[in-house]
Design brief:
Helix content is 79%, strand content 0%. The chain has twelve helices and no strands. Helix 1 crosses helix 10. Residues 281-285 have low confidence and may be disordered. By secondary structure, it is mainly alpha-helical. It has one domain (2-284).
Length: 285
């Protein structure tokens, strides 16, 4: 029961990143560049403290740090800029869909065996995502912002792939956040700072220190206790939580297009996870 509650809390934290970002950036409490920079800096600070508390040396190979920092920077830049226009729930769906599909494609390119069910699931998820973001003439879903969030998803997918082999995930995450803060600084300066209210700063720190820093640390601690397929499946709840929270807290509309598209994306990803050849072989045994 304790494990279940902690997993639920972590998924809520992940979804909260979309809510907090949309509240700060979409409501113009803070510009995207400043929000992303403060989120990274506060996340790095908390992760360094956690490393110190656990007696873990916050160090990593320079090459790995540069790759991880660059991938994290792509994620933060696309994520922050996209939420200037996208609704929280829609943004989470695009992000999650691209992350999972990019990791699946990478596995295929690396020679990982795939089943026909997984291929069908990947096609279904892609079509569902395309259906949600495809321009319909109403302007309800900004294509440019959707592409920015897709870039963020690609960045997070790359970051996740790079982090799979980390011997000390907490230390690696702390170092990557530090490098990404430095890499994102010129981007924030280039974008310019037009808005920075106290409310926006608080939301950015909450997103960086709590729902990102502590959230990621908690997730990495829980991962060894749950099966990989379960870990992938429970993350299907993140876009759903973000969509519902966006409707309740931000008054975002939930139309049929979003409902049908979300069902296709999440259902397709569920097929990819559950129809993995290794998993089916275990089921036969």
């Amino acid at each position: 029961m304790r494990l279940f509650c902690l997993v639920c809390l972590t998924m809520i934290a992940f979804a909260a990143n979309s809510i907090l970002s949309r509240m700060a950036i979409g409501s113009e409490h803070m510009d995207a560049g400043s929000f992303g920079l403060l989120r990274l800096a506060s996340g790095a600070a908390v992760l360094m403290v956690l490393c110190r508390m656990q007696g873990v040396a916050a160090r990593q190979d320079l090459r790995a740090s540069l790759k991880g920092g660059a991938a994290l920077t792509l994620y933060i830049a696309g994520f922050s800029l996209a939420y200037q226009q996208l609704d929280a729930g829609l943004g989470a769906l695009v992000l999650f869909g691209v992350v999972q599909m990019s990791m699946f494609v990478w596995g295929v390119l690396r020679g990982t065996a795939v089943s026909s069910g997984q291929v069908a699931g990947a096609v279904m998820a892609f079509l569902g995502l395309a259906y949600v973001v495809w321009p319909d003439g109403s302007g309800a879903v900004p294509l440019g912002a959707s592409l920015l969030m897709a870039a963020a998803g690609l960045g997070w997918g790359i970051y996740s792939i790079l982090g799979r082999g980390a011997a000390q995930p907490l230390a690696a995450t702390a170092v990557n956040f530090l490098w990404s803060t430095a890499m994102f600084l010129p981007i924030a300066l280039w974008l310019g700072s037009s808005t920075m209210s106290l409310c926006g700063a608080v939301l950015a720190v909450l997103s960086g220190a709590v729902t990102s820093g502590i959230g990621y640390a908690l997730w990495y601690r829980l991962l060894p206790q749950i099966l990989p397929a379960v870990a992938a499946t429970v993350q299907l709840s993140v876009p759903v939580i973000a969509i519902l929270a966006g409707a309740v807290l931000l008054g975002e509309a939930i139309g049929l297009r979003l409902i049908f598209g979300s069902a296709a994306v999440l259902g397709g990803i569920a097929l990819v996870v559950l129809q993995a050849p290794a998993r089916k072989a275990l089921a036969v045994k």
